[in-house]
Amino acid sequence: MSTDPPTDPPAPSRPSDGSGPTDGPAPADGTALTDGTAAAGSPLSGPLPAGGRPRGARAAFRHWRRTRPFWAAVWTGIGGFVIFFLPMAPLGKILQVGIGGIAGMAGGVVLMAMALLILLLPSQRHTAGVLAVIAGVASFPLSNLGGLFVGMVLSVLGGSMAFAWLPEKPAKRAGLLRRRTAAETPVPPVSIGSGSA
Question: For residue 38, which phi and psi values (nearest 5 degrees)?
Fold first, then answer.
């Protein structure tokens, strides 16, 4: 007597080229079938990668990341995290206890909020970048030497990167701008004489 759970019989295989009959209607929403192939007429073509995710997910994230100051938000957020959590460290590692700890936590919260603002609203990057630099520099006297210098440096770096970031301009088409030839270029009038009339 076996204790293994009963197994289902294998499902009949489907032809991958779509020329043979199928057991039922294919999903119309573009989802993959159970054998790893895409439904007929779906945006997914061919078998799915080993992970089961469409190949475009990484490319879509890369495109989204490049439309905003992503790394500026990451550095600002890490700097705020360091400044926020350092006052919660054991007493042996804290240089200043009391109101300074509360001010440090408030500075860390401001920096993490600026990181989210930089990431989610790239049009507000200048304001958030300046506030991140100010909060990072203010954390030096308020919060354990600015998170033992690490949080301060990361937040100033992230705020500066956010302020300096520019969105990528679309490439100009060569056919839109027509170059002037020598025959089309107007020639300025030439003055002969001393210029007095």
Answer: -90, 155
Comparing 189 with 149, the larger pLDDT belongs to 149
DSSP 8-state symbol, 88: G
Q: What is the pLDDT of residue 40?
A: 47
CA distances from 146 to 83, 99, 115, 156, 169 (A): 6, 15, 17, 11, 36
Cβ atoms of 159 and 72 closer than 8 Å: yes
User: Distance (Å, rounded) from C-alpha 169 to C-alpha 181?
Assistant: 28
Q: Give CA–CA dist 110/142, Å, rounded.
A: 13
**DSSP per-residue letters across 106-151:** HHHHHHHHHHHHHHH-GGGHHHHHHHHHHHHHHHHHHTHHHHHTHH
pTM for the full predicted model? 0.56
Question: Could you tell me the two tokens for 17?
Answer: 């080229």
